[in-house]
UniProtKB/TrEMBL annotation:
Superkingdom field: Bacteria
Listed SMART domains: LysM
Lineage: Bacteria, Pseudomonadati, Gemmatimonadota, Longimicrobiia, Longimicrobiales
Signal peptide span: 1-20
Cross-referenced InterPro entries: Bact_Kbp (IPR052196), LysM (IPR018392), LysM_dom_sf (IPR036779)
Domain LysM: from-to ranges: 29-78
Keywords: Signal
Protein name, per record: LysM domain-containing protein
Organism: Longimicrobium terrae
Length: 338
């Protein structure tokens, strides 16, 4: 009888081993790298944002030496915020084996009115002191073997050297901007060119991995700290009575006479006037007297704010009533982001 009890107890312990291993694997949130995967892919799958891949890199610097190169079978610890249901552990011969992200169907999530990509890629007008660079792109790590007498081409996942100040640390994410023309009394136009993550810092020079491109990156582009996207996924604009007037002051595509949906315009009202990302404006020609008599008000376009600075807003045209939009055209806010 004692022997039978011992056998049963031993069997119970053996049966408990896979369960304990399963609990440990789920609590640890480990992902086993598969062929062809990148940190970008893993962040997109688990964190729903590929730009958050530095969060995974920071947790695995003992495994990953170069964030641009990860290898099959490497075990990467995932951030605490990853839900337990996001990973699936399969047991084969008593050993856990990662199968990767699993799909769970649930309630359909509405598409955000303003996408993070719009927020990060659009140009903007900033007053003196609003853009505070922490570095300047100097050159790519690898030079072409051919002397093409042209600026070097920088591609996604290339490594570049950036002169930085003492505030920049390994793992920081940087945005690269190209300063444009100065608008008297308004500010300077800046256009984003790319985004990168600092892989190493040595004597004031950072090695940065380019993880996103918005325009060709070039030496002398300035580096600024990364900004988080300001809207929650369920944020929606709410219509109301017009409560703010402004005007169009410039275009992102200079020289274009006829605008189109998705065109980016700059307005002369911004954060100081209470404008926020997601607010909606309407452009119109006011009622006025012409040589033929009274000309009624004419609807021209509808536009949504995708980025805002102190004295200006960058807006994306979402609807066109008239293709001709000129500087000085009147606008009014007709909906506010809540």
């Amino acid at each position: 009888m004692r022997t039978a009890a011992t056998v049963i107890a031993a069997a119970g312990l053996l049966a408990a081993v896979p369960l304990a291993a399963q609990n440990d694997a789920q609590n640890e949130r480990v992902h086993v790298v598969r062929p062809g995967e990148t940190l970008w892919d893993i962040a997109r799958n688990y964190l729903n944002d590929p730009f958050l891949w530095p969060e995974i890199f920071r947790l695995n610097t003992n495994v990953v030496q170069d964030p641009a190169r990860i290898y099959p079978s490497e075990r990467l610890v995932l951030p605490d915020g990853v839900p337990a249901a996001a990973t699936e552990t399969v047991f084969n011969g008593g050993l856990p084996r990662e199968r990767g992200p699993s799909v769970q169907f649930g309630e359909r999530v509405p598409r955000p009115e303003v996408l993070p990509g719009d927020f990060y890629r659009v140009g903007f007008i900033a007053r003196r002191g609003e853009v505070v660079p922490v570095g300047r792109l100097t050159e790519p790590e690898a030079h072409s073997a051919l002397d093409l007498r042209m600026p070097p081409q920088i591609n996604q996942y290339d490594r570049v050297f950036v002169q930085v100040d003492e505030s920049v640390r390994e793992g920081d994410r940087l945005r690269f901007l190209r300063p444009g023309r100065e608008m008297r009394g308004v500010g300077r136009i800046y256009r984003p060119t790319g985004v990168g993550t600092v892989a190493a810092v040595d004597s004031g020079v950072a090695t940065v991995v380019v993880v996103g491109l918005y325009a060709p990156m070039e030496p002398n582009d300035v580096a600024v700290p990364w900004e988080r996207f300001p809207l929650e996924p369920n944020a929606r604009s709410q219509a109301g009575e017009p409560d703010l007037e402004g005007r169009v002051i410039a275009f992102d595509e200079e020289g274009r006479v006829l605008q189109r949906t998705e065109s980016i315009l700059f307005l002369n009202v911004g954060r100081d006037s209470g404008v926020a990302v997601g607010d909606v404006f309407e452009a119109y020609e006011p009622r006025h007297r012409s040589r033929l008599g009274i000309r009624p008000e004419v609807y021209v376009a509808r536009m949504q704010v995708v980025r805002v600075t102190g004295g200006s807003a960058s807006v994306r045209v979402t609807e066109l009533g008239q293709p001709s939009i000129t500087t000085g055209l009147a606008v009014r806010r007709v909906a506010r982001m809540r």
